[in-house]
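Prompt: Have a read of the protein record below and flag anything odd:
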Amino acid sequence: MENMKHCQSCGVPIDGVEVKFGTNADGSLSEDYCCYCFGNGVFDDWDGTIKTMEDMINACVPHVVESGAFPDEASARAMLEEMLPQLKRWKTA
């Protein structure tokens, strides 16, 4: 598990089974982004509704809480606010 890739947009672990890699414009698999964030070579997160890192945080908080990884929205938000700026998509934004 230590070699598991994480999406460089939302941070979700990409295991290739439950969460698949996104696709590049040529149809090849993206090495950086998950299928929820990236398809056909463009960021298409949740039907194109994610434009900013704050949008991504707001979209991810409920999923993180639901996963049980963090007990409440405040702690999930704090983790995302710390993690997302380190990811490739948001470092260049």
Notes: The mean pLDDT is 91.
